[in-house]
Amino acid sequence: MFLLRAPTPAEVRAFLAEQRAAAPTVPAGLTDLAAPPPGFARARTRSPLGHGEEAEARAHAALRGWAAFRVGWVQLRGDAPELAVGATVALHVRLLGGPRLGLHLLIANRVTRLIEEPGRFGFCYGTLPGHVLQGEERFLIETDARGQVTLDLLTVSRPAGVLGSLASPLARPVIRAFQRFGARHYGRALARASAAG
Fold it and tell me: β-strands 88-97, 2-5: how paired?
């Protein structure tokens, strides 16, 4: 949902209620595929978060607490849900202008999978109706044998809607740039939250 100002708390509550009843726009599992389906693009970014068990524990806690979504231009709106399959999150994205007036976007995603394995912790979420993209994003914290902790952010998406499809050749480079920019900021936010412990 595009707005010319930041969404009000009442608008966020109504939006979340509507989105909780909606089905995801794509099937879960896009980030598991070896190659994206036709029409979809894949973007992947890795960001170092620290080293050792303490850094790993802090990174896990930061991801569980949605720290990646507190980067200034992207804010989790409404109550932060527990990180669990089925959790629906609303994100306020400030595209242009200031915190109040400008071009703002309110979008929603649903957690479709948790990843909890030795050396790997994260989640996948899929887009819900009204999102500017259709796709799935995976936030994965990996710890290698040397103890290096890394955020691996993988997105598989395509523009949503008729306008998005028509503008796809023009929109794709913009979407890729936005994904890379977002991934860097998510990684920095997690690194800051991890370091703060």
Answer: unpaired
